[in-house]
């Protein structure tokens, strides 16, 4: 009689939602993940951070220190650090984005949104002349009440004030460029805009399925070709003023139709909520709000883990 086929247990994948400068939440979430997964399996897990490490919370500098330390503390884990829209803007201010591939100036990225410059108080200090649009918005000045978040703006439209302060400089100061350590700059410059992974297990109504996984901070646009999007995301095409897969809302919520033909998990953070429907996973319980937990999801089980568990 034939032996039953040995089925290899799928690798554990942990996808961590937006952290937004909250070091204590990150530390608590990390130990909860280790306890939930079990120490030996956790040691070899694939950990995908879904982006937005900075802004809003008080400890961006400590959060980045923590993330940088992981590969040496957990040498058998694999770590993927996605770029969120906040991280892209932080990197833009520090001059860490790759140059536009066509040789154009970053100032070309302002044109489409110039009518918002005054309202959003774009940065006009040292070095602004050739800064990507998002760097100028990030370090700009925005005061008043943010209705969408139900809180006051913290420095800028990105709430970047606490990030400047975590490095010991006032909001909007060009001194931040000197204050951010080289290893933090290297980390920010190395963030990927998209990550693809084959053979990821996920529990579905039909049982355990092996799928391709695409991780991207906000999602993929539904009315643009997937290959075209993946191409410019992998290339980090900085000609684009506003990178929708990192910053869009409704337009990137669903899985693009063409990906339903070959089952593909699309996982994101960004949206300030947790939404798990079929193969579309959105993991951002926190949204950078102080009283909200930071969340992660485990695959294949789709189990949600919070820092408050």
TrEMBL record:
<dbReference type="Pfam" id="PF00149">
    <property type="entry name" value="Metallophos"/>
</dbReference>
<dbReference type="GO" id="GO:0016787">
    <property type="term" value="F:hydrolase activity"/>
</dbReference>
<protein>
    <submittedName>
        <fullName>Tyrosine-protein phosphatase RLPH2</fullName>
    </submittedName>
</protein>
<dbReference type="InterPro" id="IPR029052">
    <property type="entry name" value="Metallo-depent_PP-like"/>
</dbReference>
<dbReference type="InterPro" id="IPR006186">
    <property type="entry name" value="Ser/Thr-sp_prot-phosphatase"/>
</dbReference>
<feature type="domain" description="Calcineurin-like phosphoesterase">
    <location>
        <begin position="12"/>
        <end position="113"/>
    </location>
</feature>
<dbReference type="InterPro" id="IPR004843">
    <property type="entry name" value="Calcineurin-like_PHP"/>
</dbReference>
């Amino acid at each position: 009689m034939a032996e039953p086929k040995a089925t290899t247990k799928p690798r554990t994948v942990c996808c961590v939602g937006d952290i937004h400068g909250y070091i204590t939440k990150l530390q608590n979430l990390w130990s909860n993940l280790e306890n939930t997964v079990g120490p030996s399996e956790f040691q070899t897990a694939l950990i995908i951070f879904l982006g937005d490490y900075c802004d809003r919370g008080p400890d961006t500098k400590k959060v980045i220190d923590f993330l940088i330390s992981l590969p040496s503390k957990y040498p058998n884990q694999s770590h993927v650090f996605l770029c969120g829209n906040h991280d892209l803007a932080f990197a833009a201010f520090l001059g860490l984005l790759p140059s536009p591939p066509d040789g154009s100036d970053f100032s070309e990225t302002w044109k489409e949104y110039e009518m918002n410059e005054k309202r959003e108080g774009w940065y006009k200090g040292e070095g602004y002349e050739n800064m990507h649009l998002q760097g100028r918005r990030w370090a700009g000045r925005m005061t008043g009440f943010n209705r969408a978040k139900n809180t006051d703006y913290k420095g800028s439209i990105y709430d970047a004030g606490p990030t400047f302060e975590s490095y010991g400089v006032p909001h909007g100061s060009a001194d931040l460029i000197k204050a951010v350590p080289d290893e933090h700059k290297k980390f920010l410059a190395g963030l990927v805009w998209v990550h693809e992974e084959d053979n990821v297990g996920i529990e579905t109504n039909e049982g355990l399925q092996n799928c391709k996984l695409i991780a991207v901070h906000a999602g993929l646009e539904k009315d643009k070709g997937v290959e075209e999007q993946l191409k410019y995301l992998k290339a980090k095409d900085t000609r684009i003023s506003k990178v929708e897969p990192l910053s869009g809302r409704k337009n990137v919520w669903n899985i693009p139709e063409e990906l339903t033909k070959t089952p593909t998990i699309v996982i994101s953070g960004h949206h300030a909520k947790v939404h798990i429907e079929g193969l579309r996973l959105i993991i951002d319980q926190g949204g950078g709000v102080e009283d909200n937990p930071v969340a992660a999801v485990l695959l294949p089980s789709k189990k949600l883990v919070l820092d408050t568990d």
